[in-house]
Amino acid sequence: MKRISIILASLIAISACCGTVTDTQHLKRAENYGALDEGVESYLHDLRLCGSTHELNSVMVLKDGEILQEYYDNCYGPDFRNICWSASKTFTATAVGFAAQDGLLSIEDKVVDLIPSGMLPDNISDTLASLNVYNLLRMSSGLKRDVISVMGAGELETPTKTTLSYGFAFAPGEKYKYNSFNTYLLSVIVTNATGKLVEDYLQEKLFRHMGIHNYHWDVSAEGYNMGGWGLYITTEALAKMGQFFLQKGEWNGKQLLNREWMEQAMTAQIYQKGEAYPDDDHANGYGYQMWIGTHNSARFDGAHGQWVIICPDKNAVIVITQHTNARKMISKVWTRLYDAI
Q1: Mean pLDDT of 240-246
Q2: What is the pTM of this model?
Q3: Helices (H), the chain
C-alpha cells in the first residue's frame, strides 16, 4: 500500500492563511517511519464498517519516543486543534498533580476548604463536608447531578453552587460513578490554589518544556477552564502528553512531575463494577481521571474515540482522534495497531 502521507508545504500555507499557531520542538520521526501504514489502513477499513458517518481524523504512534506512524484525514493536519472531549480530564488531573507537588493542596484536602465560600451552598451538609480531592480524581464523589450539557450551552451562570446544592446520590468514596462535573471542580480547585487557570498553570509547569503552544480551552460562566471537556489541541501535543506519562513525569532528562504521582495516576484507584475485568477496556479500573485498559495500558479517553493510549509493554503511545463507536473500535486498536508495533 502506498504510504499515507501529508503534503506539509500545503498545510503550512493553509495554517498561515488561518493564522494558526505552530507548536515547536517537534517529535523526531523514527527510521522506519510509516511502518504501520497497513495497520492504519486496516483500522480505517474496520471504521468504515461501523457506519457511513464515522470518520478517522488523525493517528499518531510513538515507539521509543519517536514517531513511527502519523496519518491525517484530508480535512485535518498537524496544526489542527482536535476537540478532546473527556480526554481533557487527564490534563486537569495532571494540573492537580503539579499543585500537590508544589505543596498547594493534597488529595486528602476537603473540597469545601479549597473553593471560595461564595461558590458553596448556603448550608454545608455533612456529606459535602466529607468530599475530598481524591474522591473527585477517581470519579467517586457521589454527586447527584452532572450539568455538563447546560454548562456547555452557557445556560448556567453558577454551576458550582447549583450542582453542589443538588446533593449526593451516595456517600463520597463509596463507589465509582462517572461525572464530568468532578473534573470541573478540580479545575476550580487548581485555579484557586494556584491563582492561574488550569491551562496557564500547565503552560508554566509543563507545556513550555514540551514546546506546546497551539491549544484552546473553553471557560465557564464562572471564569474557569471547563476541566472535564473543552480542550482543543493538536495530535502531536496529545502524543507528547502520552510520552510524558510513559516516561513517568520525565521530559528531556528532567523530572517535571514526581514519579509516584504518575504511577498512581495510571493505576486503578477504583473499579467501575467493583472488580477488575482484564479483557474489558471499559471496566478494568479508573485512575486519576484516566482509564485503565487491557495490555497493561492506560488512556486519556474522550467521547467518540479521542484516545491517548500509553502502552508500557511496547514502550509506545497510540493517539487516535475520530468520530466513531468507541466501544466497538477500541478492540481494533489492539489488533490493527498495537500488534503491529
Answers
A1: 98
A2: 0.92
A3: 8-18, 37-50, 88-101, 126-130, 133-137, 148-152, 159-165, 180-194, 198-202, 208-210, 235-246, 259-265, 326-332
